[in-house]
Design a protein that fits this description.
Largest interface: A-B, 26 and 26 residues
Radius of gyration of chain B: 14 Å
Helix content of chain A: under 10%
Helix content of chain B: under 10%
Number of strands of chain B: 11
Oligomer: heterodimer
Order of helices and strands of chain B: EEEEEEEEEEE
Number of strands of chain A: 11
Number of helices of chain A: 0
Radius of gyration of chain A: 13 Å
Distance between the termini of chain B: 38 Å
Strand content of chain B: over 45%
Strand content of chain A: over 45%
Largest sheet of chain B: 6 strands, mixed
Order of helices and strands of chain A: EEEEEEEEEEE
Shape of chain B: globular
Structural class of chain A: mainly beta
Distance between the termini of chain A: 32 Å
Chain lengths: ~110, ~110
């Protein structure tokens, strides 16, 4: 089983719909992140959370919200999806004691907004 | 403002030869640099890292070089193997609001030809 699991793996949704992407981890890490990958832009940080009561905006948080339901669960919501949110989304975790800030990624969710 | 740049979207190398992937950064506060490797339909996986106090780190076939004065790092793969074909992301880490955060480059697609 993967240490960081994302559901769904693929999703097609219509403009204006609400959608939630879920992430769970078994690594026991406190820190969790949501990134999106777009061609030519690399990975950009949407939101991050350092513990259950901590939520922080990343560089591209507009149009997104998150919920940290437990140490192991971090979900990303698109309240009203729009086509330019079509992208590959990754959840990641890291250990605060890891000096290299090495992050462990899930397999990704490919989201298409039509 | 792209703080971490990988200017080559793609690179093609013959099997057995050296692959050199390059990365430039602009922020002098970055104190750790990492390379991630990504296969299709999978999340990025950590490959190798280097602290800003070093200029070289080696792990088997992979060596990362850091030139702080030029704000440049490179990943050398010797000898290149077909399984090295993947997208490689350069990432830089800096402490922000009390925690390490990663900034990624755009990625370079490496293809190893037999």
């Amino acid at each position: 089983d993967a240490d960081v699991t994302q559901t769904p793996r693929n999703r097609i949704t219509k403009t204006g719909k609400r959608i939630m992407l879920e992430c769970s981890q078994t690594k026991g890490h406190d820190r969790m992140y949501w990134y999106r990958q777009d061609p030519g832009l690399g990975l950009r940080l949407i939101y991050y959370s350092f513990d259950v009561k901590d939520i922080n905006k990343g560089e591209i948080s507009d149009g997104y919200s998150v919920s940290r339901q437990a140490q192991a669960k971090f979900s990303l919501s698109l309240e009203s999806a729009i086509p330019n949110q079509t992208a590959l989304y990754f959840c990641a975790t890291s250990d605060e004691n890891h000096g290299a800030a090495e992050a462990f990624f899930g397999q990704g969710t490919r989201l298409t907004v039509v | 403002d792209q703080q971490v740049k990988q200017n080559s979207p793609s690179l093609s190398v013959q099997e057995g030869r050296i692959s050199i992937l390059n990365c430039d950064y602009t922020n002098s506060m970055f104190d750790y640099f990492l390379w991630y490797k990504k296969y299709p339909a999978e999340g990025p996986t950590f490959l190798i890292s280097i602290s800003s106090i070093k200029d070289k780190n080696e792990d088997g076939r992979f060596t990362v070089f850091l030139n702080k004065s030029a704000k440049h790092l490179s990943l050398h793969i010797v000898p290149s193997q077909p399984g090295d074909s993947a997208v490689y992301f350069c990432a830089a880490s800096a402490k922000y609001q009390g925690a390490q955060k990663l900034v990624f480059g755009q990625g370079t697609r490496l293809t190893i030809n037999p």
